[in-house]
Amino acid sequence: MNLRKILSMAMVSAVLVSGTVACKSKISDADLKAKVETAIQSNPNVQVDVKDGVVTLKGTASSEEEKTRMADAAKTADAKGVKSVVNNIVVNAPQIEVNTNTDDLTAKVQAFTKDFPTVQTTVADGIITVTGELEQARVQALKMGLDALNPKRVDMSALKVK
């Protein structure tokens, strides 16, 4: 009978010990959010939401590298508390400066189109208008070259394609 009591007590003790270890307290979503916000504080344009250990990042970044860096920082803010990271950060496209200087743009267009003798161009208010005729195979090269001059727009609607 004594052995039975000892075994029962040992069994109850083992269950209590394993239950205590298994029920280790988890970090709260608010505490996890604070840790992640601290980890990504280098970018004030990113907001953090946490629900059940899932971290959601939203906002803007200046590059893909920065976007990835923010997600990595969120993951490592609390390796045990972060279940996953949803990265909804949008990368801002770099701003392209539009050339609206008519004289400058006209000079650059004339220099570029000298290799396209069947094409005529005019420049007004930063818009390049293309007329004349051109072979289908050369249209893309013309368009890409004119776009590289950063006008407001390239209007090729009057160009006849052979």
UniProtKB/TrEMBL annotation:
Domain of life: Bacteria
Residues annotated as domain BON: 23-93
Record-linked PROSITE patterns: BON (PS50914), PROKAR_LIPOPROTEIN (PS51257)
InterPro entries, sorted: BON_dom
Protein name: BON domain-containing protein
